Amino acid sequence: xxRDAELMTRAxxxxxxxxxxxxxxPWVGALVIDQHGVVQGLxxxxxxxxxxxxxxxxxxxxxxxxxxxxxxxxxxxxxxxxTPPCTGAIIAAGIHRVVVGVRDPDAQVAGRGIERLxxxxxxxxxxxxxxxxxxxxxxYLWQRRTGRPWVVLKVAATLDGVVAAADGSSQWITGEAAxxxxxxxxxxxxxxxxxxxxxRADDPALTARLPGRTLEPLRVVLGTAPAxxxxxxxxxxxxxxxxxxxxxxxxxxxxxxxxxxxxxASAFVAxxxxxxxxxxxxxxxxGARNTLGALRNLSTASIDHLRRGRVVSVDRLGExxxxxxxx
Length: 327
Ligand SMILES: NC(=O)c1ccc[n+]([C@@H]2O[C@H](COP(=O)([O-])OP(=O)(O)OC[C@H]3O[C@@H](n4cnc5c(N)ncnc54)[C@H](OP(=O)(O)O)[C@@H]3O)[C@@H](O)[C@H]2O)c1
Hints:
Elements: H1 3-16, E1 29-33, E2 39-44, H2 53-61, E3 69-74, H3 86-92, E4 97-102, H4 112-119, E5 123-125, H5 130-136, H6 138-146, E6 150-158, E7 162-164, H7 176-188, E8 191-195, H8 196-202, E9 218-222, E10 235-237, H9 241-250, E11 255-258, H10 262-270, E12 276-282, E13 292-293, E14 310-317, E15 320-326
Helix pairs in contact: 3-4
NADP nicotinamide-adenine-dinucleotide phosphate binds at residues 155-156, 163-164, 168, 170, 173, 194-198, 201-202, 222-224, 238, 241, 259-264, 267, 292.
């Protein structure tokens, strides 16, 4: 691994710590090394209104940044938002060289940040660990490119794919560790979508319940939620799912978590709108008779038409498995 890649790995670690609180801004990580190659500043994007990662790292480095190198996962911004442009701070700090993971597809940045730095005589190296950085920032990059949030479908099922028993009961199929992981998924999402059927059956509150988390995700019900539902206040939407996603994207939602039930999950998969599936598998069997299959309303005409994907990860959480699939 090159020195640039090693440093980018550390910047990525710093970005992971900003994953939950940075949105609607991207969770960026940055570090500053001085002229002798010693790390002098390291940080991630602070919550909205707070400094971006570059400014955090530069602030920590102080005068040691002069003549040094800034390593940052995402191209620095060059426009005035809630905070001043990062390019200005980098140039003012006397940084000699900037190492960037990926370009920012946001229409207000899109290469302008890198251009500005080069014009000011700063050397810029692009594309360091671009694959890893692109994967870590996938929801943000997707939302900026398509205008729609990155869609994660979450399912908790028995080994044979059942999500509710014949009487409609479904709590709880998986154990505590899997449910804690699902709460983290919620916290990483700026919106959660469920069908009205799930609201009627389970009356979920759909809160992230994560310590330290300040902003709860926006709750979206497809159809109508009963007046006394715990999910309230919520958005109630019907109509094409594409339009719902466009609206959420327009509100700065970077990632949406689809929590079911089967009718909703089937509709998202059938429309080709799912980016990732997170499937918690409990070592339990339910059978198909009168039970609810996770994608009950989805049909596949022939094996050639299976919606195949790629396994991103497999983890064991207590007694359960967590399988993440790229669709
Ligand atoms: N284990 C798990 O992971 C899990 C997760 C969630 C739910 N569940 C279980 O799943 C069951 C409920 O699932 P379900 O399939 O009956 O209902 P659902 O998917 O939760 O909700 C379906 C309802 O959503 C509304 N809707 C509006 N637009 C829609 C669209 N584009 N696509 C689909 N639905 C739309 C419709 O409500 P209206 O008819 O009111 O218009 C529809 O009847 C419950 O037993 C629950 O316990 C299990």
